[in-house]
Fold this protein.
Amino acid sequence: MNNFEDLIEKEYSNIAGIAIRKDNHLIYEKYFDGYTPDDALHIASVTKSIISILIGMAIDKGYMKNIEQHVLDFFPNYIVKRGEKTIQNITIANLLSMTAPYKYKSEPYTKVYSSDDWVKAALDLLGGKGSIGVFNYSTVGTHILSGVLTTATGQSVLDFATENLFKPLAIKAPTNTTIQNKEDYFAFLKDKYVTGWIVDPKEVNTAGWGLTLTTRDMAKIGQLYLNGGVWNGRQILSSQWIEDSTKVQSRSGKLTYGYLWWILDDCYAALGDGGNVIFINPQKKMVISIASRFMPRAKDRVELIRKHMMPLFE
């Protein structure tokens, strides 16, 4: 154990917290660099997997028919440009499985996040000459799903998440947080202590990044999935959604993807920049969550989990 913790401090120095659950119990918890169980961190693209959960809940509750609905069904006032046909055929499933085409070669983060309506800016990029069904990972495009949730439920994403996910799991709901400029954005990424869930100028919470959670919160969400959607004896998410969202829906080379979850052989995970992870191993009934401070090109956490953590705790 001492060797393992030394390894974290020496080679994975941006890790703030690790929580491991096995057989429905928290069996290991450790914090580094002055962090505590109560400290939230920006979980980056792990936010995407939370949005997947919320889409599943919206379907369970009848706010949405199914994920084969066309994206534009939820934006009746959106005006499609003349000659633009592809966008009309894109479904919610395409956004969830990263198989929607976009009109860019590299993601125009600044263009979207400096606009006064991030959902519309993302919709304007959707479609083009690419093929529907081809894997095409997009963070700005995922924001459209927050617009879908807001339209479908009649609630903000945060309110819907608080009522249906955070409260049942006894997770302290974050507050809305805004970024006004590039300095705010980098501060949110790099400051040691951050809280909240980023909202755009229309007060739509981000779907591709921007949520803060504690290490324990992340482990609880992993446990919810491992339990087939049951928490404290209550079914809060359908087991069918968990099954569908964590099996292969798209692929790019050796990479396989579900509905905003990465599929890793017999395991699956929510993965975020800097090394934020909710890793779920159904066979070993194990959940591993790792919360990390932002660091470009962080060392591979999946390798850390498979090589050093699972053998130590299984």
Notes: The two ends are 13 Å apart (CA to CA). The first helix runs from residue 2 to 11. The chain has a mean pLDDT of 96. Residues 143 and 207 are 5 Å apart (CA to CA).
